[in-house]
Structures are given as structure tokens and as C-alpha cells.
Amino acid sequence: MPVPWFLLSLALGRSPMVLSLERLVGPQDTARCSPGLSCHLWDGDVLCLPGSIVSAPGPVLVPTRLQTELVLRCYQETDCDLCVRVAIHLAVHGHWEEPKGEEKFGGAADPELEESRNAFLQAQVVLSFQAYPTARCVLLEVQVPAALVQPGQSVGSVVFDCFEAALGAEVRIWSYTQPRYQKELNLTQHLPDCKGLEVRDSIQSCWALPWLNVSADGDDVHLVLDVSEDQRFGLSLYWNQVQGPTKPWWHRNLTGPQTITLNHTDLFPCLCIQVWPLEPDSVRTSICPFREDPRAHRNLWRAARLQLLPPRGWRLDAPCSLPAEATLCWQAPGGGPCQSLVPPLPPANVTVNKALELPLLNVHPNLCVQVSSWEKLQLQECLWVDSLGPLKDDMLLVETRDPHNNRSLCALEPSGCTPLLSRASTRAARLGEQLLQDLQSGQCLQLWDDDLRALWACPMDKYVHQRWALVWLACLLFVAVLFLLFLFRKDQVKAATRGRAALLLYSAEDSGFERLVSALASALCQLPLRVAVDLWSRRELSAQGPLAWFHAQRRQTLQEGGVVVLLFSPGAVVLCREWLQDGASTPAPQGPHDAFAASLSCVLPDFLQGRAPGRYVGAYFDGLLHSDAVPALFRSVPVFSLPSQLPGFLGTLQEPGDPRPGLLRERARLVSQALQPALDQLLKAPGDPGDPEDGTRDGT
Fold this sequence. Notes:
Elements: E1 3-9, E2 22-25, E3 30-33, E4 38-41, E5 60-76, E6 79-93, H1 111-117, E7 120-131, E8 134-145, E9 154-164, E10 170-177, E11 185-190, E12 211-217, E13 220-226, E14 232-239, E15 247-255, E16 258-263, E17 271-277, E18 285-287, H2 294-303, E19 305-309, E20 313-317, E21 325-330, E22 339-340, E23 356-357, E24 367-373, E25 376-382, H3 385-388, E26 394-401, E27 407-413, E28 416-419, H4 427-430, H5 432-440, E29 445-449, E30 453-459, H6 461-467, H7 469-487, E31 500-505, H8 511-525, E32 529-533, H9 538-544, H10 546-559, E33 563-568, H11 570-581, H12 595-608, E34 616-621, E35 639-642, H13 646-653, H14 661-684
Parallel strand pairs: 2-5, 31-32, 31-33, 33-34, 34-35
Antiparallel strand pairs: 1-12, 3-9, 4-8, 5-6, 6-9, 7-8, 7-10, 10-11, 12-13, 13-16, 14-15, 14-17, 17-18, 19-20, 20-23, 21-22, 21-24, 24-25, 26-27, 26-30, 27-28, 29-30
Helix pairs in contact: 8-14, 9-10, 10-12, 11-12, 13-14
């Protein structure tokens, strides 16, 4: 059995008492002023163009407050419309220039200054009115004798009659001057319905207005419209957004009693219902019954998405406006809460569906954006983890300056902001002098700065290494002793291991070169290595695309302590040089499965930023490429010629300490035997395209 929530007419808001309204006769708009002011209403509506704020040239009139009153605009005794009367209160903004020199001490007064004070202050005041689906702007000219007012003094008000609006509508009113000297005033009001006003005999739309019963039945919501069987009416569901235009969602023309069923997942706080009789000039009335529904608010946060836009932008997407605040915070590695930072983002409600800028000088992977509502964290996203890498063990220093340019520094820790050079028993206090030296020597990255505060991120890697040096030394000695004990054992026990991961990247030039790469990959698989190459993952490449496939493989390989092997060929060298010459532009892939071309945008930044050593190894094949052809940028990592330098190449790929030199030479001999036939065949017939499917495990 459905449980009724409330029974109301199709109008926005509920009034606890019945109001009697003043009647205005005739369709004309009018304006009147309080004593001492003179005003004039321009004929017709004007364009709503607020413009930018400009400096006042002297004393000017500006609106300071808006008030509204509901009235009836009647054309006949029983033919009236609801109308909004707006009162604009005005005050003087700015001041006259004070006299200088002798004039200040009783000298002759400036005639121009006296003339300006005897003139009139005049303002053009714009009233902007919006009530879905209509909008209007009117212009009022107001003036007051300058001699009767003082700066900051209220001078009176102007009353405009009136803006017509539908029963139950949500109206928004703005007021500003042309030119605009300050931020515009704004007011939002929900108008009452037929039940809340003494208008049943005056407004014809109330005579046969459909009635709506909103009820809940489990996970469903029923909209029951109680109308006569032959009455035709329009029904529209829309999202009423404060920020941005109204977004229609569902519309139907219906006849007779109807029951519309909504799933609870369709509910949002800004979901509104509008209904109107299908008659000429009928009044459209609306309700928004889910504003306070907890399920609607939960759905809104589930649908909200926080995005970080390089280089320093962010955006919150949601169907409705959100009563939320956004802040910057610092996320230390190892878990724990994200600590709020200065500078705070604007404290006003978050603007949804609009790109915003973060007030940062530089970005850092530990910086995150939090979105909270009613002091409850709803969303959090850290800055571009995919492009900047994982969280760093950096210390964040907060610098504070006073007006005399004296500064103090503290380090942000889980317990709070610890002053440097203090006697606290925290890591920042113990390393206070070293951190101060790092800051003075330019080793810290400045993230943000203003006149009184600044944020710095200081690397802590070297201090972590120093602290654990003795521990690591003891561990190494222990491992060395164990290794010697194993050498003395008669029968070596080979532990089952998964082997180190290796990702092979190459430029797919022809089938002969692919056979050569396949032979190398197959030979390496016979060693304790886990080899990934695009030749064996064609199905995944086709589904994901070369760039996504490489990004996933590279991240997995490096996270597991593996190594990326760059196989240089003439084509690969050409692609690298084109990329370096064109700057950050990514060369177009050479084929549907060419992961090498797609990977350059991720590989080259590692070399340019010094992150490649220990993670990358280079190689080329004897007779196909000379060592001088490898770009200088890639020589920051070991580069080997194959098969002539196979022992060194395999030693770099193996885990540290494994295997013994004799075993390494034997493995190099086996790999060379597997590699040489494919290399000889390629050198004898370099122009033969061959069969593109040869040498692959998975031709899909």
C-alpha cells in the first residue's frame, strides 16, 4: 500500500497561512520612488548584460538590498495573474575628493567641486528576472540631488510593478547598475501555490488545476495526477540547476488520471515536476518535492565525479548544484588522513560542471583535492598520479611571514605543524637544521606563495637512506654469510621463483625484425625471466590500444621491480629523433599494434627527468645498427650490442646476485644460439617483408 508523503497542488513551496494580495489593474509596468528621489522606467525590456566591475569616478548610486512582494495583475475581475513587486534600496558609494592646499584651510573653494556637489547623482539600475521558462530585464533611471546625500548613506528605494510569474515557480532576481560598480545583488524566492493564496476565484488556472499525490512504495516513487478523464495536460520532469540553465529530462502530453512511476535511483534534489493544462496561454506550475529527500542526496553524491585537469585545473561534475566546499590537502605515503592546507579554495559553494584553477605554482603527487559536505568528506582525488608517479616521502614545509618580513617555518606531520629547530621528538624536529639548509640551497620545490605564506616540498630520500644505512649493512652481511654457506653445500637447491619481469619495446618495421624479436623473447623466457612483448598480446592490443596496453604493462613491470628493454633499430632511432625535434608532440603510431611509437610519450619523460637508470636497459643487434646511432639521451642507461654483449645484457636483466658467472656464460651461449639464425636471415634478406604472422605466439 503506497504511503502518501504529502498532497499538494502543482506549485512550489507550502505556505502555513492563506495570503490576501493587492490587485493591480492593467498590463502596464510602472515604477515609483521614495521621497527625495526621481525615477523613470524605460519602455520595453533591455538586454541582460552586467559587464565587468569598474571603479567609480566619484559618488554613485548603487543598489544595496532587494525586497519582493506578491501582488495580482488583473485584466478583469476573475482574470488575474500572480506578479512579483520588487523594491530596490539604494545608497551612495564612493566620495568626493577632499580639497587640497589653501582650500583645506579656508581658501577659495574649487568652482568645479562646488558645481558637482550641487548637481544630481544619477544611476541606471537594471532589474533581471528569471522564472522558468521566461526571463526579463528592465532599466530604471534614478537620480537624487548630490547636496542631500553623504557617502555610505541610504537615499531611499525604487519600487517596480511587476514581473508576472507562475504559481509555485522558483524566481531569481538580480540587480546591478550600468556601468557596474560592485557585485550584483541576487535573490531567489519560491512562490506559493493556489492553496496558499486567496486567488481561487481570480486566477483561472486554479479552477481546474491538476492535483498531484507523491507516494513511496518500496524502491519506487509514484506521481499520481488526479484529473478528470477528458482533461488534457502536459507533464515535464526537469533538473532545476542554480548554476547553469534548466535541463529537461522527460516530457509527455497526457489525458485523464495518470500514475508515473520513478525508481529511487532517478531521484535528485533538483528534480522538479511541471504541469499545465493543454490550453492557450495556460499557466505552468512546478514543484520540486525531493529537495529534502535523503535518497535524492545520496544519489547526487553517487553521481558526482571529481576530475583533475592538467596542468592545474579541476572540475566537479554533478546533475545538481552541491552544497559543498573544496580544499587542498597533503596526502603522506603510508595511509592516514589527508591534511588540509593553505591556500584554501574559495569557501563558497562549489560550482559544478565548470573547470576551475588551482592556486599552485608547481604540482606534486601528494597534493589532493577534497570535496566535503556538512563537514563530511565525500570525494578526494590526488593530483595526476598517473603522470607524476606514486606518493613521495617528501616533507611539506609551511612558511609564514609577518609584515616586517620575518619568517617562521614548520613541517606538516600527522601530529600537526612542527616548528623547525624545535626539541620535539618528531622526524621533522630531528632533521630541522638539514631541512633548513635544503630550503636555503634550493633543493625544495615551491608549491604556492603569497605575501604572507608559502608551501615547500623537500625530498627526504637521502635522510631515509642515512638512517637505515647500518640496518642495510647488517642485512647485506647476513645475506653474504648465507650466500657463502650455500656455496659450500654439495648439492645446490634451486628455489622456485617467478623470475624478474622484462618488457620488450621495439619498432615493428617488417616481419624479419619481428621474427628476430620473437626469437630473443622466446630465449629469454627459458631463463628465470617473465617476458612481455606486444607480439604475444595482439588481442589485448587490439582491444585496449597500443598506448593503454603499454601504460598498463610498464606500470606493472616497474611496480614489480622489473626492467623495460628498449630494442633500437633504424626505424626506432628515427621515431626517437622526430619526437625530440618536435618537443612534446607524440609521433603517430606506425601500425595498429606498434607499442613503441605509442610509448614514446611516457618513456622519454623518464629519461628527460632522470628517472630511467635502474628501470630501463637499451640494446641493438649486431650488423643492424651502429652504437653511435643510439640517441645520446638513452645512453644514461646501459646499452648492449646483441649477441656480442649478451653476458653483460643478461647480467643486467637478472636479479642482483644471481646467477654465478659460469652459469651466466652458459645462458648467454644458449640465447646466442637461438638468436643467431634469425639475425643471419634478416641480414641476408633485409628487404623481404616475409609473413607478418611468423614468430608470434598469438597472431590475434
